[in-house]
Amino acid sequence: LPLHIFEPRYRAMVADAATGGECIGMALLKEGWEDQYEGNPPIHEIGCVGRLVNLETLPEGRYNIVLHGLSRYRVRAEHYDRAYRDATIDVLTDDPVCAPLDEALRAELARLMSAYQAVKEAEPRWKEVLRLTMSDEMLVHSLAANLDLTTVEKQFMLEAESLPQRTRRLIELLQFKLYEHHGSEGWV
Question: What's the predicted TM-score (pTM) here?
Fold first, then answer.
């Protein structure tokens, strides 16, 4: 995730992360955050820890950074003693010995991605991605990260507790996107 950091509180956060553990927790603000933005509007309790993999210092204390997602987390407690929000978290892990996806589930995902690619007249790279031999986890996460999903849809994916659940959610989102394009006859 590439980010341009310009707000003073987030510049302080990046400076602290760069000299500390080099990790930042990303959390989605809940709906209605606009009126409370300068304070601490409510956030979703599930977020993602990202490691700073690129840090470019710019004039006036600004930064361009790239975060690499490492793991999901759940906020246990929020702390407000710094300019930016800090939290105590529990790192969430999927089953480390994740069995391969059911063949039918992976085939359904591939079928819907092909239909979606045709509708969006997307670059042919998705066909290549689906043909590549990659882990199911890498496939699902790559699709979720790179499809034109809203932040709320990406949050829906992030909150899934297992790879099969995340895959079923991705399938549902693709079905809805195809429905939006074709109407009821497009429900595939």
Answer: 0.76
